[in-house]
Amino acid sequence: MTSAEDTPPQTICPECQGDNLYAHGGINARGGYGPDLLPGTSGVFSSAKMQTIVCRDCGLIRFYATRETLARITPDNGWRKTR
Ligand SMILES: [Zn+2]
Asked: Are 71 and 28 in contact (CB under 8 A)?
């Protein structure tokens, strides 16, 4: 199945300008024993999902919340806009 969430947001590394990027979807934002990276965005039965992009040239790692998770970034869940 292909969706927008499977498409990496960028194909060029912003750190080294290389194009040796690898994406992995379906990363849980809330681990069993780790911090909840996106509080308030997990559902009752499923954790919020992120996509990870890693550059195999310089090692830069970036995380992107999926669209479903972004929809839960609201003031009701404790999120405030920074400007
Ligand atoms: Zn890089």
From this structure: no
pTM of the model: 0.73
Q: What is the pLDDT of residues 22-57, one digit of tens each?
A: 999 888 888 777 788 888 888 777 788 899 999 999
Residue ranges in the chain assigned as alpha helix (H):
67-70
**Sign of the C-alpha dihedral, residues 31, 15, 6, 9?**
positive
Q: Distance from the CA of 12 to the center of ligand 1, in angstroms? A: 8
47 Cα to the center of ligand 1, angstroms: 29
Centroid of ligand 1 to alpha carbon of 61 (angstroms): 9
